[in-house]
Amino acid sequence: MSRRIALAGGGTAGHVFPLLAVAAAYRARRPDVELLFIGAVGGDECRLAEAAGLACAALPAAPLFGVGPLGQLRAAWRVLRGRRAARALLAARGIELILGSGGYVSAAPLLAARQLGLATAILEPNVAPGLTNRLLGRLVERVYLCSAAARARFPAARTLVTGVPVRPELTARAPADPGHPPRVLITGGSGGSAFLNRAAPPLLAALRDRVGEVAVWHQSGGGDAAAVRAAYAAHGLPARVEPFIDAMAAAYAWADVGVAAAGAVTCAELAAVGLPALVVPLSTASEDHQTANARAFAAAGHGRWVAEADWERAALADWLASATGARPARGAVGDDAARAIVDDCEALLATRLITTKTPRHQADQDFRS
User: Which of 69, 230, 339, 340 has fewest C-beta within 10 Å?
Assistant: First the structure.
């Protein structure tokens, strides 16, 4: 009898990639697993999920916070519509367990799963948990955390510290090759960093003045990639600038040092591949949650962090010059985190089947009829 699991998340790639890592681990453990990814209408998550070989369904969803009263009314209406659609979808697919990764996209499917009596879990990759997960953490059966520091925000008996699941294709980078110019990877995450789009070109020009030639690969996010290219050109720097880097494994392997926004997944990936990096929390991040990620990243010896307000180009160019070719300690391997989550999900489902007649029995009958 196959296992049927739903994964819900989106809004940013940081809400998608950990779920894809869990999906890969589930397939490795149970080749018969049937996986369904749930994203938002108009989001990019279905493209990412389908590229990983997952079926994907898009439901109505919208941000509920930081959008003003009218935006909240619209978002609340979409949550209600999304919950109704999710209930029908989960029942029709015979889903047994749903894992959400936080953010507004996962709210409606998890609420629907609770109404159906399905097993529910969330993944919180940030050191400082987001608001949606703090609320959902009171309802779900399990909360998977990247850090023990996040435990205080959730019911202790429901938490399990696993680390952040990282895509299995990401591997340790090779040592820097002294035969080529220093290679610098700049990324503001899938949404981009307006600050790094402005500040990186002059920073890299200052680095070039210290070390000679510099090679640049810059993920600009939703900003104007052409404007970022023009800024590099104005400083006499050839640069590869893309709104989104699909081949992130290749980018990490190519780079000698990174400059990145302090998203939880980006920090975990940098640590997992052993790429020294300067991380810069987005000043626009909700509740300034990226600062906690950045502090933890630097404290673990993976690089340095700096706030946008404390940016000092000369000092940071000196640090990048010294960090090029460094070999920081690698973080916890993301495959281990994904396997730990899959193991616990299986244990959770096994316990439910032993202790009670779960909705799966009816779902199996519906699925066969």
Answer: 69
Q: Are 285 and 143 members of one domain? A: no
| pLDDT tens-place string over residues 197-206 | 999 999 999 9
Q: Distance (Å, rounded) from C-alpha 226 to C-alpha 321?
A: 27
> Could you tell me if 139 and 204 lie in one domain?
no
Same domain, 70 and 211: no
Determine the distance from the C-alpha atom of residue 282 to the mean position of all C-alpha atoms in its chain, rounded to a whole number: 15
If asked whether residues 218 and 305 sit together in one domain, one would say yes
Strand partners, 8: 38, 100
- φ/ψ bin of 189: left (φ > 0), alpha (ψ from -120 to 50), beta (otherwise): left
Rounded Cα–Cα distance for residues 31 and 19 (Å): 17
Spatial separation of the C-alpha atoms in residues 102 and 8, rounded to whole Å: 8
Q: What is the DSSP string of 91-106?
A: HHHT--EEEE-SSHHH
Distance between CA atoms of residues 301 and 211, nearest Å:
24
> Over the stretch 153-182, which tens digit does the pLDDT of each residue have?
999 999 999 999 998 888 767 766 777 899
Domain count, the chain: 2
Which residues constitute the domain of residue 189?
Answer: 183-323
CB 363 within 8 A of CB 96: yes
Q: Are 242 and 218 in contact (CB under 8 A)?
A: yes
- Phi then psi for 224, rounded to 5 degrees? -85, 100
Same-domain pairing of 9 and 32: yes
